[in-house]
Task: inverse folding
C-alpha cells in the first residue's frame, strides 16, 4: 500500500474513533521549573501564581495510536544526502534524534533529548562535510555538534550568546564549502557566522534589519557550485546572495503570492547547473526554482495538503548526485523526493497520532462550559461537555462548507456560535454550537477580507471578530456575519509592528493581546488597533533559566489580567503580570501525564482552571490551582458514535 493511500486509510479510521472523556491523572503533582519566581500583584486574599502553583487534574486523549516512535517521524526538519553512498540524513526534531535512510529504508539512528554531548533539543539543520562527518544544528541548545556517520560524537561549538562564535537558536542554516569552512545561519541573532571545520570562528556578517546584507530571522542557507552563499532571509521574504567572505551580491523575492515572490522562504538548495530551489512555507506551500541570479523558472507542489507533491510546512531541502530533491515535509511527518522538474518520485515516513486527536491545535470554552477542540490533522472540530463526554464532532478534509484543511484555531462567542480558522483554506467558518454550518468568508490574498494562513481568532464583548492574518502580518476585523470592518497592523520589529501574529486574547476592557510567534512577544492594543504595551519583550531567549519564552504559540488571560503563554521550546506554561514580570511556570519535557510536548493554545475557565493543548502528546490537559485536588474518580473513558 503506498503512503498516500495508507494515510487516507488511517485518517478514515481515526475519524471513526470518538474521543474519550477526561480522565483523572494517576501520577502525583508535577514539579514546576526551579527558575519560577513569585512577584505578588494581587490583593491580600489572592496570591499571585508561584512555583508548583498548578496541578494536573484531568486529561482528554491518549498519546500514540498507530506507528511507534521507531517507525515514525515527529516534525522532520533537516535533510542531507551523502553523495558517496546516497544515505539520507534526517533531523527527526520532535524525537530529538538523527535518522539515516537508504532508498527509504532506515539504516540507523542516534541521539536523544537532552543537553549532554550527543544529545539534542530540537535538532534542525544537518549537512555532511567532505571528510564524511555529520554537522547538526542543535537549535534548542544553541550549538553545532559533529558526529561520525555511525553517530559517534566528535566535537561541538557555539552556546547561547550574541558575541562572535556564540549562537542564538540556529535553525536549518548550516552548510560547508569546498574548503571545509562551515556557514551557520544564526537565526535569532539575525546574522551569518563562518567557522572552520573545528569550530574556530572566522567571520560574521549581517545584523537585524531589512537592508542589503541585513536579516530578519534567516532560516536556512546553502553553498552553490560557484562558492557563493544563498540565504533564506525568511521574515524579509527574500533570498540574499553573498560571496564566501560575506560580500553582498544580489537579492530577490518579496512578500506576496505571485511568481517569484517568496512568502516565508525556508529550505534552500542549489544544483550542479546553478539553479536555486526554495521551499515556500506560505498559504499555498510549494517549491520555487530560480536561476543563480534570482530569475524565476518554475514552481511545483502547490497545495497545503498531504497528497503526493503537496506539503504542510516544507522545511529542509537537499539534493543528491542525480539531481533529485529531498523535502522535509515537516507537518506531514515524511520525506518527499522530487525530480529536478519538481514532480514527485517517492516518499517515506509514517504519522503517529493519538487515540482521540491527531496534533490538536486549539481549545475553547463555550458559555455553557462545553469544550471545543480543533483537531488539526484529522481536519475536524470536536465538542465535549465539561466532564469530557463527547457531544458532537464535524468536519473532514476538503474545501466545501463545513470541511477543513488543517484548522488552527477555534473560538466561541457569547451566543454559542463557533468560529474556526480554516487556516489552509484561508477562510473563517461559522457554525452553531452543535456544528451546523452557518457561513464562511475569506480566500487567499492580501486585500481586505482576504487571508494568508489566518492563525488566530478572538471575539470581544461587542461580538466583533478579530482575525490574526498571520502571513500578511496584520489584524482584520469583522462583524459576526463576516462583514469586513477594518484592518490594522504593520510588518516590522518596532513596538507597534508585527511579523507573524498568531494568537489573540481579549481582556475585560476589550483590549487585544496579540501573540507574535516570530517576535516571541505579546503586544497589547486597543480595540481600534492603538498600541498600548508589550509582554515578553525580552524574548528570543534560549536558556530556560532566563524564564523567557523562546517560541510562544498561545496566549490567554485570567480574570485578574495575568497573561498565560505556552512555551513550545521549553514545553512550559509561563505566567506574566502586566509589567512583564514572570510570576510562575510549570510543565517541562517528558511523557508523564503532567509534562508537555509542544504545548500550543490554552484556555481558562471562570474557576481559573487551565486547559492546555499538549499537541505532540495528542491530548488536552486540564490544570487547576494547587489548592484543588485531582479527582480520584476516572470519568468516562470512551464513547463511540
Result:
Amino acid at each position: 500500500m503506498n503512503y498516500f493511500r495508507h494515510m487516507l486509510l488511517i485518517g478514515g479510521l481515526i475519524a471513526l474513533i470518538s474521543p474519550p472523556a477526561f480522565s483523572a491523572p494517576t501520577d502525583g503533582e508535577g514539579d514546576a521549573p526551579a527558575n519560577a519566581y513569585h512577584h505578588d500583584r494581587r490583593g491580600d486574599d489572592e496570591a499571585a501564581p508561584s512555583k508548583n502553583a498548578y496541578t494536573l487534574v484531568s486529561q482528554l486523549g491518549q498519546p500514540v495510536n498507530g506507528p511507534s516512535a521507531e517507525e515514525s517521524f515527529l516534525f522532520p526538519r533537516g535533510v542531507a544526502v551523502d553523495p558517496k553512498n546516497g544515505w539520507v540524513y534526517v533531523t527527526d526534531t520532535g524525537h530529538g534524534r538523527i535518522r539515516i535512510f537508504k532508498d527509504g529504508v532506515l539504516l540507523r539512528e542516534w541521539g536523544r533529548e537532552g543537553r549532554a554531548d550527543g544529545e539534542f533539543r530540537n535538532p534542525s539543520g544537518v549537512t555532511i562535510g567532505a571528510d564524511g562527518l555529520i554537522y547538526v544544528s542543535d537549535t534548542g541548545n544553541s550549538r553545532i555538534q559533529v558526529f561520525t556517520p555511525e553517530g559517534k560524537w566528535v566535537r561541538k561549538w557555539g552556546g547561547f550568546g550574541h558575541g562572535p562564535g556564540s549562537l542564538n537558536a540556529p535553525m536549518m542554516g548550516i552548510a560547508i564549502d569546498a574548503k571545509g569552512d562551515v556557514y551557520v545561519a544564526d537565526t535569532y541573532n539575525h546574522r551569518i557566522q563562518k567557522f572552520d571545520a573545528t569550530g574556530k570562528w572566522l567571520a560574521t556578517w549581517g545584523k537585524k534589519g531589512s537592508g542589503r546584507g541585513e536579516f530578519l530571522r534567516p532560516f536556512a542557507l546553502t553553498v552553490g557550485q560557484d562558492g557563493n552563499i544563498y540565504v533564506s532571509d525568511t521574515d524579509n521574504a527574500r533570498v540574499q546572495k553573498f560571496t564566501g567572505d560575506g560580500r553582498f551580491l544580489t537579492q530577490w523575492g518579496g512578500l506576496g503570492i505571485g511568481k517569484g515572490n517568496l512568502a516565508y522562504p525556508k529550505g534552500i538548495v542549489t544544483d550542479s547547473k546553478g539553479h536555486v530551489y526554495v521551499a515556500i512555507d506560505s498559504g499555498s506551500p510549494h517549491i520555487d526554482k530560480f536561476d543563480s541570479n534570482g530569475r524565476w523558472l518554475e514552481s511545483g507542489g502547490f497545495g497545503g495538503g498531504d497528497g503526493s507533491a503537496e506539503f504542510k510546512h516544507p522545511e529542509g531541502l537537499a539534493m543528491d548526485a542525480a539531481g533529485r530533491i529531498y523535502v522535509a515535509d515537516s507537518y506531514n511527518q515524511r520525506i518527499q523526493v522530487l525530480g529536478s522538474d519538481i514532480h514527485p518520485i517517492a516518499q517515506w515516513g509514517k504519522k503517529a497520532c493519538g487515540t482521540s486527536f491527531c496534533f490538536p491545535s486549539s481549545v475553547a470554552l463555550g458559555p455553557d462550559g462545553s469544550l471545543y477542540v480543533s483537531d488539526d490533522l484529522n481536519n475536524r472540530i470536536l465538542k465535549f461537555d465539561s466532564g469530557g463526554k463527547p457531544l458532537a464532532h464535524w468536519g473532514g478534509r476538503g474545501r466545501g462548507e463545513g470541511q477543513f484543511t488543517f484548522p488552527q484555531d477555534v473560538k466561541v462567542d457569547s451566543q454559542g456560535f463557533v468560529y474556526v480558522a480554516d487556516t489552509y483554506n484561508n477562510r473563517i467558518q461559522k457554525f452553531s454550537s452543535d456544528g451546523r454550518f452557518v457561513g464562511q468568508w475569506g480566500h487567499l490574498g492580501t486585500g481586505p477580507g482576504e487571508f494568508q494562513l489566518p492563525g488566530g481568532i478572538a471575539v470581544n464583548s461587542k461580538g466583533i471578530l478579530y482575525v490574526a492574518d498571520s502571513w500578511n502580518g496584520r489584524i482584520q476585523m469583522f462583524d459576526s456575519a463576516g462583514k469586513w470592518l477594518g484592518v490594522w497592523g504593520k510588518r516590522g520589529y518596532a513596538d507597534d509592528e508585527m511579523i507573524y501574529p498568531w494568537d489573540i486574547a481579549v481582556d475585560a476592557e476589550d483590549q487585544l493581546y496579540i501573540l507574535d510567534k516570530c517576535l516571541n512577544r505579546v503586544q497589547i492594543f486597543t480595540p481600534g488597533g492603538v498600541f498600548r504595551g508589550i509582554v515578553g519583550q525580552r524574548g528570543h531567549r534560549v536558556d530556560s533559566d532566563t524564564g523567557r519564552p523562546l517560541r510562544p504559540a498561545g496566549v490567554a488571560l485570567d480574570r485578574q489580567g495575568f497573561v498565560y503563554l505556552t512555551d513550545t521550546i521549553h514545553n512550559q506554561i509561563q505566567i506574566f503580570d502586566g509589567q512583564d514580570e514572570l510570576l510562575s511556570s510549570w510543565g517541562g519535557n517528558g511523557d508523564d501525564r503532567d509534562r508537555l510536548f509542544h504545548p500550543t493554545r490554552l484556555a481558562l475557565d471562570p474557576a481559573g482552571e487551565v486547559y492546555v493543548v499538549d499537541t505532540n502528546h495528542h491530548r488536552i490537559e486540564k490544570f487547576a490551582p494547587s489548592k484543588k485536588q485531582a479527582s480520584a474518580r476516572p470519568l468516562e473513558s470512551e464513547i463511540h458514535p
